[in-house]
Amino acid sequence: GGQFTETVAGMLIVASIGAFGLRMKLVGVGLAIAALFVRELAALYVVIGIWLAWQDGDRRALAAWGLGLAAFAVFFAWHSASVQAQLGPDDFAYRDSWIQFGGPSFVLATAAFNGLFIGEPLWVTAIVLPTSLLGLLAWRDAALAPRVVLTVAACMAAFAVVGKPFNDYWGALYTPLLTVGLAFLPATLRDLLGAIAKPRR
Question: What pLDDT digit, counting tens, does each position of 122-140 carry?
Answer without folding.
Answer: 888 999 899 999 988 888 8
